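Anyone? Bumping this.
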Amino acid sequence: MTTRAKPWPLPTSGGRGVGQARPRRRIAVEPRYLILVMCALLVAYLALVPVGTMGVAAFRSHFLIGGPSHWTLRNFVTIFTAPWFGALVTNSFLYAGATAVVSTAAGFGLAWLVARTNTPARALVSVAAITPLIIPGILSTVAWALLFAPQVGPLNDLLASAGLPTFNIYSLPGMVFVQSMHVVPIPFLMGVAAFRSMDGSLEEAAAASGARPARVLRTITIPLARPAILSAGLLTFVQTISTFEVPQLIGVPGHRFVFVSEIYAALQAFPTDFGAVGVIGVFVLAIAATGLVLSARLGRSTATQTLTGKGFRPRVADLGRWRWAGLGVAAAFFLLAVILPLAMLVWSSLLPGYRPPSTEALRSVTLSNYRAVWTTPALVGSVEHSVVTAVTAGAIVTVLSAVVAYITVKTRARGRSLLDGLATFPIAVPSVVMGVGILYWYLVAPLPFHLYGTLTILVIAFVTIGLPYGVRFLTPGMARVSDELEEAASASGAGWLRTFQRIYLPLLAPSLLAAFLYTVIVAFREITAAIFLYSSGTEVMSVMVYNLWSDGSYPVVAALGVIMVAFLASAVVVVWLLGGRIQITRLTNQG
Amino acid sequence: MIKLTGLVKRFPGRTVTANAVDGLDLEVPAGSLAVLLGPSGCGKTTTLRLIAGLDRPDRGEIVIGDEVVCDPGKGIFVRAHRRPIGIVFQSYAIWPHMTVAQNVAFPLQGGRPRIPRRKVRERAVAALDLVGLADLADRPAPALSGGQQQRVALARALIREPKVLLLDEPLSNLDAGLRDRMRDEIRAMQQRLGITTVFVTHDQDEALAVGDEVVVMSEGRIVEKGLPQDIYAWPRTEFTARFLGVSNIMAGTVRSVAPGVTEVVIAAGVLRCRPCPGARDGDRVSVLMRPESFLLSRRRPDGPAWRGTVDFSIYRGDCWDYHVKVAGEVLKVRVYQEKAGLAHGDIVFLVPDESAAIVLPAPGTASAPAPGGAPAVVR
Amino acid sequence: MRIGSHSRLAAAAGCAMLATLLAACSGGTTASTPKALSQRSTVTWYTTVSASDVQPIIQAFTKVHPNIKVNALRLSADQIPARVLTEQRAGKYNADVISCDSPEMAQLIHAGGLQPYNPPGEAQLPSGLSLPSGYTGVIYVVTTVPAWNPTAVKKAHLTPPTTWQVLTKPEWKGKFSMDPGAVNWYESLIVAMGHTKALALLQALGRNKPVLVASHTQAVTQVEAGQPLATATAYAYIAAKGEKKDPGLITFANPAPLPASLNLIDIAKNAPHLAAAKVFVDWLVSDAGQMAIVSLTKEISLRSDAGDNPAVWDPGTWPPVWGPPVVSASQYSRDTQEMDKALGVP
């Protein structure tokens, strides 16, 4: 009898699907209950504030402008009928759509190599595919803008010397190219999860029925993976349409304006058209939310279809000689997505003034930029601020998502799936809406404490952005701590707190670690929200990078960027070593 | 029709040092059904996959029909999709995104020469008819029950009229009643079509019921092979004896060897066992007796009998199983057509059926006896 | 399952920590009554001065007034009115001192976002220009000129753009950058050649698809790197600094007339640190301050004795043409919209 491995539980949203026929614990009125309720309220507050203020700005005339204001649809009318709105929509959809297609194809291709073939060094390929996650978008965008600069970019020089046409990065294809490479890790992770959960005998049956490997791929593997592919495509579409770096750094100079760049411009313009900001923000939010709901639904259908659970074994296609080609493809991707931008950054950081790479420029190599980062108080301050906000946000997200996961998985409280939905909701909120929404709220809210222009407001933004990911790590982790373990503890005389400390915490440690680390990474990389919320004295590294870039101080930008990437990479390595057996990649697969 | 010679397969990276398949020789005559039987990990599924071409052996030769499909020494390896096989997986591997007819029609598509679509449909429906599912042809595959999926898998495996049919534990996921029915149907169909079949299972009842030849495997090697009745009644090793059915294995010493009988001294007394050529006086051996080979009575019979005490009893509906303590050993005794049953402590008398007493080499010694066959009459 | 006393204590400690954290994070920007100068104080300065120039200026000021700390928030000119007014409308008064280009500053004046203050030692305005009383502080002057990379331009066989008309030629299509928010330059052009011609020039430039770069320092850095080859709206003093370092990489030309504009400095309404703000503004517009600014950053001062770079600022050779320092809201709006439209910005 072959041993049948129990399939990993899928990310549950809400209490369904956990499949235990045990009576859930009832919430009585206890101090523990109060903590749970407070956390729930906090989550609801965090999730709804940005969206609420955006909606108010959209539907009210004279938002934040002196004078009487009333509810109105006029803002919508003005924007939707503006002559440039059509081009805005077209550009945004083209940009996001093309990026979704390219990155999903690349991501799933790499995932197939890793999960379904005998490509050598598959672990390295996995790492290569995920690494773009640690490079903040703004840095890779800056690096690519330099690499493919129309006149002097070194890559364009290479193309020209090979007789090929040069590539103008300040264009829609340029935007798609840069963003795609940045986003590939997401469809990669989803693809690996999908392929790993596919019953290998489905493909073997096709082979045994006489289908050549290409036909098996075409008629069996890809159709079965189709829901996952679509789901990943939608997710990258939503991500792309709501981020700021590429449209601002590459789109604007090239006259390609999308929703996010328009919101940014409208906010800076004078007089500020808050209504326009609100309308476009709500519009982006609606698109993002629709995309995400569809994506989630498709993702669920994959799981139920292909997980037959009857003693399947993952099948590895034998590529024969072609497996080295597979490794080559992965290496090429790594080179493109990670090595080239990083090399550009390192190169720029070593020169006193930016010059394209050349041998004479080598003579002026210096470490003065790094010294500048060390000695300029504003820069050092930004590093401090980034670390403080990221770590604080990480801690808060870890605790909050653990509580949310506990409520949704382990209790019978009414409205727990609503809570789970609220905690996950911020994923649908584009970062720009998040930043502006939080900004407006804390400008107008009659709160007793003064949060505008403080680090706290940044922490609030990062917590809101990181919370959905935390919940996605913690919920399956919590589900894996079966009720019986807890019951055995209480039957052995342990109170709730001791059970939490001695049973839950150790078993949850990998998920907690993953949630913490992911939030720290997200907080470090986040610029879109931060750029609306920072003030003098509260710049974080990502904002600093953007400001320095706008100022043209490329070398210092590069130095700061290299430090950022090094820090993030070492954080990941440290956590991976600490939690070595814990396999964070497997956890992120579930996300 | 199938010939395996010296097949060896090792899985890289395994901590187990033994090969998964360790020097296997097997011949399956055309039109017969060979059952590969053994505990999990014995290599039976691996052997099946090697025949199918889903895995590559490290050494050995595989011939299907008159074609050498695999010979690593000569660098020959025909991939799975080019072998004339049909395979039914343990999980059935029905493609969920197609209808039943599309699943069954798949093997006919994509090959050369192209078969026109109408013909393909005709043949698919005919194949489904063969398994009794013609009216479900256009239903989406996931809507089928386990038994129905299994039949679809069977139809799909047979539609190309392959030379060889391979079945990997096809009945393990069905519930008991369905299992028996399907087993009989598969057997009937195999005999009707006369197709060479290899059937993998860990269930010895299935193996005995279905096969023309039973191949018992353990740790990558063939332990014994032969007709079901021979394997069951006269196993040549203790492993086979224990694996196939319930057995009583009694340790003993050979007292004398004669042409028609071998006398073995066991704890309960002296047993005149079936002849065992190759046994010599003084050899340490095991004696196998099946539970149904005892006559059990509550009163002392005339003639030699063993006295024992009932340890406990299990009622099975069609029979009673008793564990009887005899001379310090516990013997399992099965009694059919008994209504009342015995209780712990009851005294009983056992008369062993000596024509069913088999001498086996003691564990650890090399297996000796000649291949089984119809036994000489014992008197 | 009652929570033990241990955990209650832990919860209380946690709340206390959270409260402290919040308070610490918000430190520094709470509104406070102006303190006497002998005590330590802070000034929050919203400014368009480039990042590399801001630090030296602050350091020079701190040498003279060591107990006043200056926090600079660097924004581009078009961002400043929006930011300041948004904050003020929400009742948050963060900024103490604001310095930016005159068209944008004028909007703040109109909207009532500033408070009047006459620094004692400030310079005279050029003849013909007037600002409302209390809002006459000038921190420096900027001139907008075309700048280009002579080596790269020669290699590409293009005509060096000594005037903007050259950049409207087809050969320059897509090969130069422009600041879509350079309202001060546009308004100078309007004064110099009349609205119709200025708009025509703008549209011709727009048709040549310039790369849109908002930051003047970034534009110059890019030209030095050869990407793009020229910029239409460089600040001459920045280009001059670059030329001094390496004349092969950047040079500029002062067209006649030379668009010039004032960069004004004022105190924000309800500034949280009024006294310190006044001290800061006083120093910046004073003789000492202006000389320090000119020598540290090479910007142009209105004071003739401040040591301006004659290649950049020589009213005799290159007569400046000033856009009106105080532009009405409607005109500002019209001008920005015309720029946006001409350059293809939504």
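Late reply, but here is one note on the structure posted above: Chain A touches chain C through 64 residues (CB under 8 Å).
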